[in-house]
Design a protein that fits this description.
The structure is a single chain. With 92 residues, the protein is an alpha/beta fold. The protein has one domain: STAS domain (Transcription Regulator spoIIAA, 2-Layer Sandwich), CATH 3.30.750.
Length: 92
């Protein structure tokens, strides 16, 4: 589930909670597309309880595209780091 609120300073905050899975990602992507040229987009992840691989990859792409991830749980940050920096292949 998510909620969108717009701040007076031009900031758009998407407050996400619960599970983030494929069906929710589609809706979030559509809403982000509607915000198009907004410079200050924030995803507030304070109440997120569960994510899957697709959600982690999506969040990593968001951050790479200058979308701020606010109050991101540590386990998600760790997983995102692993997605960004895959382990080196085994050396023989």
């Amino acid at each position: 589930m998510f909620r969108i609120r717009k701040g007076g300073n031009g900031q758009v905050v998407f407050t996400l909670s619960g599970r983030i899975e494929a069906d929710v990602l589609v809706e979030i992507q559509q809403q982000l597309a509607k915000e198009g040229g907004t410079r200050n987009v924030v995803l507030d992840l304070k109440d997120v309880t569960l994510v899957n691989q697709g959600a982690v990859e999506f969040l990593a792409r968001c951050e790479a595209n200058n979308i701020t991830l606010q109050r991101c749980p540590g386990y998600i940050r760790k997983w995102m780091k692993q997605v960004k920096e895959p382990t080196a292949s085994f050396k023989r």
